[in-house]
Amino acid sequence: MNSIKKSELHLFIIWHNARKYELKIVEDIAAKFSIIKKYEIHWSKEHFSKNLSRFYGTNLPKNSHKEKHCGIGPFLAIVVEDNEPAYQEHITSKGGKLVNTKMFTSKTMHREWSGGGHRIHGSNDVAEANHNLTLLFGKNSNDFATENKNCTKPYFEKYNKNLVGHNGWKSLNQLFYVLNSTIQYVVLRNFDYLPENYRSDDHGDIDLLTTNYHEMCFITNSNKIFRSKNRVHNEIIVAGEHLKFDFRTVGDRYYDEKWEIDILENRQMHINGFFIPEQNDLYHSLLYHALIHKPSICDDYKNKLSKMSKETGNELNVEDFETDKPLAMLIAYLQRQSYSLTQPQDKSVYVNIRNINKCKKGNVKYQKVSMPPIRNHFKYAKSKSKHYITKFKRITSSAIKKFAK
Q: Could you tell me which residue, 160 or 403, shows the higher pLDDT?
């Protein structure tokens, strides 16, 4: 069954090794679509393989089959408008998908003309087109269309730039702008002062939840900090600074997978231009994080959760954190949503066994895969020592003030 949609932008790429067929291909494209703009794109040889990897979201190292197959010379990018897009189920390289039929069949035919293989790229749907345009030109589909709405004939331009962000990002605003058009994600917490102020005394990194860890790494052009397979700590260059990010992913057991999916499906756009969990998910995921991922709850989280509880129809005061009331609220929520407790794949995440056992007594399931790592005990000891040191300083300071009087 065909699905008719309003007009939409799409992208064709004729990679270098197929350019001897470009006249025939471009003529066919012009007969079926309105050509908005044509670019001859020059990626630097030094960064070509990295650009290719980031564009396709998979590791394509230097001299990979894909690179040799497509060629590393200048290639042609053609931005088109389909005024009568029709969607139908087709078998793609990723299985059966609902795709733009005209784009898909044209791309398939052009690949045959150019000797088979994948020397021709074409976007299958508006999401892929948006992803492609944003990475290639730093402009999403809407902004690209707005900037070129007065073009009366196809415009040709030589474009000598690598993918956006190839040498770091100008700002967090730019990074979030690109993420908004290329991948599903949310900033999980501690985003109150983003994107202008990304330094926090209490929380040293930016926590994201996304659909695909490796794709997020390629899009952001991040560098993995630890070699361990399940560590997700990454570094991204923003405005010349090395910012730390944790990339949590659906299925990594940081939260119940069902909850992770729900958080992404229910996400909302923050006024400052990035995605965050909706209020209920935000409150309960932070409550879970504070009670299950931490050996003890810091004052910052106590204050935040107390304030947020009023906004979500829950009553939780700072003093209540000295009792089991917060845990009882979490248990009730997990039961209502049929969410389980989980042991994260990332072994650096603390697992609060004491609180987990209390939740289990409240009939909340626990998805355990192994014994908690020994670093759990070190984190607990460190947290306790920090607590007592702070308490000692407070008592000492108070005593000095009294003595001074």
A: 160
Q: Rounded distance, CA 226 to CA 232, Å?
A: 8
pLDDT of residue 1: 38
Residue for token digits 């006024």? 271
Closest alpha carbon to 345 in 370, 366, 379: 370
* pTM given for the model: 0.89
203-229 burial, b at 16+ Cβ within 10 Å, e below that, comes to eebbbbbbebbebbbbbbbbeebeeee
Sorted by where each starts, the structural domains of the chain and their CATH numbers stand as: 3-159 (3.30.70.141), 172-378 (3.30.460)
CB neighbour list of residue 109: distance below 8 Å, 6 or more residues apart = 28
Q: What is the spatial distance between Cα 322 and Cα 320, in angstroms, rounded to a whole number?
A: 5
- For the segment 207-230, the average pLDDT, to the nearest whole number, is 96
Burial label for 395, CB within 10 Å (0-12, 13-18, 19+), is exposed
Look up residue 179 and give its two tokens. Answer: 């993420």
Pairing relationship of beta strands 34-41 and 155-159 according to DSSP bridges: parallel
Site of tokens 């599903």: 184
H-run or E-run covering 56? helix 48-56
Nearest to 340 by CA among 301, 314, 368, 312: 368
Phi-psi region of 183 (alpha: psi -120 to 50; beta: other; left: phi over 0): beta
Identify the DSSP state of 163: S
Q: Which residues are CB-neighbours of 271 under 8 A, at least 6 positions away?
A: none
List CB contacts of 319: < 8 A, sequence separation 6 or more: none
| 26 — pLDDT class (breaks 50, 70, 90) | very high
Model pLDDT for residues 118-132, shown as the tens digit of each residue: 999 999 999 999 999
Tell me the per-residue pLDDT of 292-321, one tens digit each, with 9 for 90 and over: 999 999 999 999 999 999 888 888 999 999
- Quick count: other Cβ atoms within 10 Å of Cβ 3? 12
Are the C-beta atoms of residues 176 and 273 closer than 8 Å to each other?
Answer: yes
CA distance 145 to 148: 5
